[in-house]
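Below is how a single chain appears once it has passed through the pipeline. First comes the sequence as given, then the structure the pipeline wrote out for it. We keep one example in the README because the format questions we get most often are answered faster by looking than by reading.
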Amino acid sequence: MKDNLFENLNLDLNSTNQKLMKMSSLDIIEWGYTTFKNKLAFTTSFGIQSAVLLNIIQHSSLKNKVKIFWIDTGYLPTETYKYAENLMKKLSLNIQVLQSEISPARMEALYGKIWESKKSDDLDLYHKIRKIDPLEKALNDHSIQCWGSGVRAEQTHHRGTMKFIDNFRERISLRPLLGWSNKDIFYYMQDNNLPQHPLFMKGYSSVGDWHSSGPETEETQGRNTRFRGIKQECGLHTDSSNQ
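Resulting structure:
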């Protein structure tokens, strides 16, 4: 990635962020494609709220034009795999699946079931192997300059500090849904007849791998239901996995 990427694009991040704040999510996505062309890619987790971003993309002028990556860790819940198949058929999605070069069996043989540890460093290693490395490889292989995702400001404290566009790990990160609330997500899905993730009906507000997700309780809600409460972020959306 060239150090003068922003200069070459004549892109001032501060003024661009102010501009994007006033635009709809659809307009932000289309702006991203106009600016970066085939150097733009989005990721999806097929989690509780993933249908919104995917639906907006597929009902824009970018249908089947923009790259969409799905990071399959090999440890997703059965419900997620079935939900993904359902949503891909419903929206006619062309998804590229990303997987670690190390199979789950090989990882467990070498490192054990490191997700069972209560150590933050072990979780960091797990997420690096199963999520971060596969994503970075795909972004590099496709020469992606701008990575878009469906993160929202109210999900975690860290995400509350994010901007609609920012410099991130030698690329640009684009966040079209940053200002959406939980209610915005719910009513958009309802109005657009989008299927809910099966685990949503079982009390999950966030879901990732089967071993690091759980339903909400009176004591634990939102992203605090993830990763045994040790952390809220897996490292995909942070420059440091210690956040």
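Residues 120-141 form the longest helix (22 residues).

See the next section for the split statistics.
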